[in-house]
Amino acid sequence: MSNTIGIIVGSLRNASFSKKLAHAIIGMAPRGFEFKIIPIDTLPLYNQDFDDEHRAPESYGIFRNAIKALDGIIFVTPEYNRSIPGVLKNALDVGSRPYGKNTWDGKPAAIFGNSPGNISAFGANHHLRQCLVFLNVPAMQQPEVYLPSIGNAFDESGNLKNEETQSFVQQAVEAYIDWFNRLR
Ligand code: FNR
Questions:
Q1: Which residue among 13, 18, 80 is best mutated to probe the pocket of ligand 1, counting the most ligand atoms within 8 A of its Cβ?
Q2: Ligand 1 within 6 A of 152 CB?
Q3: Domain span at residue 32?
Q4: 36 CB under 6 A from ligand 1?
Q5: Which residues make Cβ contacts (< 8 Å) with residue 17, sequence separation at least 6?
Q6: For residue 116, which atom of ligand 1 is closest to its CA?
């Protein structure tokens, strides 16, 4: 039976490095696993009235059903102001409600943080972990994935240029799969 792992990308930018990294990760899916991006760009900013008054946007229902159908999740995120981008927080919030219907509940996750800078989205990674505790999402501890200088990491076809980086990302994906198999 195939396991479906959703990839949530914390950037809406067309030329996003996180999107490129997500595509590189999709190419590393092992046999028996499907990796697929779950889009977050159609989600209006969360307003609790939508749920309380039973008028949630259609995109919320589509997104929540997509998350519910997943076996696991890989977050690929940049850092904004030493935290996660608002679009990613919004997606977490939308998927967590209405109260008692947290669609993220129990799904094993991994976090792949990246940045054109040197601090490698450390702040975003750990702020995301804080949210995942409350959402009851177990997040892989090791290896921690902090990818610096991501602006130079890809060739024109979107492949990871540096063998060491490629090998590290591959090892992190394999570690996630091992850990996922132990939890499920
Ligand atoms: C950034 N950037 C950034 N980078 C970083 O390493 N730490 C940070 O705290 C921030 N803060 C920040 C805030 C805002 C509002 C923006 C727009 C950008 C730079 C960021 O890493 C860079 O723009 C990445 O290219 C964004 O990721 P994507 O879109 O390439 O995936």
A1: 80
A2: no
A3: 3-183
A4: no
A5: 11, 78, 114, 116, 150, 151, 153, 154
A6: 21
Look at residue 122 in the predicted model and tell me its pLDDT. 98
Q: Residue 184: its pLDDT value, please?
A: 85
Q: What is the pTM of this model?
A: 0.98
Say how far apart CA 35 and CA 167 lie, in whole Å.
18
Which of 162, 126, 153, 139 shows the shortest CA–CA distance to 74?
A: 139
CATH number of the domain to which 38 belongs: 3.40.50.360
What order do you get walking across the sheet with 33-37 strand by strand?
Answer: 33-37, 3-9, 72-77, 109-114, 145-147
Q: Which atom of ligand 1 is the closest one to the Cα of 151?
A: 25
Q: Phi and psi dihedrals of 102, rounded to 5?
A: -75, 110
Residues of the chain with pLDDT under 70: none
CB 80 within 8 A of CB 124: yes
Question: What's the total number of domains in the chain?
Answer: 1
For atom 5 of ligand 1, the residue with the nearest CA is 79
Our answer on whether the CB atom of 119 is closer than 6 Å to any ligand 1 atom is: yes
Bridge partners of 5, per DSSP, are 35, 72
116 CB less than 6 Å from ligand 1?
yes
